[in-house]
Amino acid sequence: MSTQPQVETVSTGADKAKLAVAAVLLVAGVVVFYVLGQRDLWQRVIALLVLVAGAVGVFFTAETGRQLIGFGRESVKEVKKVVWPTRKEAGQMTLYVFAFVVAMALFMFLTDKTLEWVLYDLILGWKR
Fold it and tell me: For this UniProt entry, which segments traverse the membrane (predicted)?
């Protein structure tokens, strides 16, 4: 059982407005990219990147964005706790996997050919 209390966040109107503005900026970036179709590509890309950066900036000021940043920080902490295998252990496990794959392929091949022989030659009597 978890010892941490479950915290339920309530979205405020300001957070919903920020998310809406971020969505509008994102859509506006795509629209501007295509509306500026007669301009040089670099101008269109810069306009798109500016609007997308604005959308990302607004998103990260909302509660949802702050939660995403917190989740990322917690994920990095958890990855640092992982005990990674040594090069020797990784090589050994890779060889085990390859050996298992070869054994299973051989098993599947022999099973298929045995069933083919039983079905076509013994039961149906077809000669090839």
Answer: 20-37, 44-62, 93-110
